[in-house]
Amino acid sequence: MESIFSLLSRHSVRKYLSTPVEEWRLDFLLKAAMQAPSAGNEMPWEFLVIDQRELLDRIPEVHPYAAMTRTAPLAILVCGDLQREKHKGFWTQDCSAATQNLLLAAHGMGLGAVWVGVHPMEDRIAGLRKLFAVPDHLVPFSLVPVGWPAENRTSPARYDPSRIKRNRF
Ligand SMILES: Cc1cc2nc3c(=O)[nH]c(=O)nc-3n(C[C@H](O)[C@H](O)[C@H](O)COP(=O)(O)O)c2cc1C
After folding, report:
1. Residue 27 and residue 123: Cα distance in Å, rounded?
2. Could you say which of 3.40.50.2300, 3.90.1150.10, 3.10.120.10, 3.40.109.10 is the CATH number of the domain covering 29-151?
3. Is 148 in the pocket of ligand 1 (CB under 6 A)?
4. Nearest 5°: phi and psi at 24?
5. pLDDT recorded at residue 148
6. Which pTM does this prediction carry?
7. Which whole number is the average pLDDT over 61-78?
């Protein structure tokens, strides 16, 4: 139950300590991502784990809002696999669910992470495809830098009852 309540304190973390993230935590993040729901259970995803310093440092060359990878010990590139798509058009929702699971799993373990948007920005897709030799049938969808937080911030509560209607608008 405790982890359910931690959903409400999730926030983006963009500065990280150099402390490495243990392999078992990385495994858990990837398990959480792959446990996401998907349309018809199509699971149209692949995950590229990036932990080479030189590559992490180069990501901001191809993504204007990814400077945080320069301090991240690790980033996960979530890619959509169009060959696995059974229900056309749903792959982005499936990959969103996987990305959110990654964020929540990281937060649940005390790690910091942030969703860095890639799809549908063509220049970011092309830049990341080139940098990481992503094959044609995969589309870079989102990037999730992960590390131990080096900043202490929170996000405000966003619950707004005026956004909720009951039975009819
Ligand atoms: C689709 C999407 C794309 C995002 N892209 C970026 C990004 O490129 N760079 C970044 O620093 N944060 C990015 N974010 C994180 C948002 O800025 C952040 O979630 C939002 O400001 C709310 O803050 P919080 O996550 O701390 O609650 C993105 C979030 C989403 C869902």
Report:
1. 30
2. 3.40.109.10
3. no
4. -65, -30
5. 98
6. 0.97
7. 98
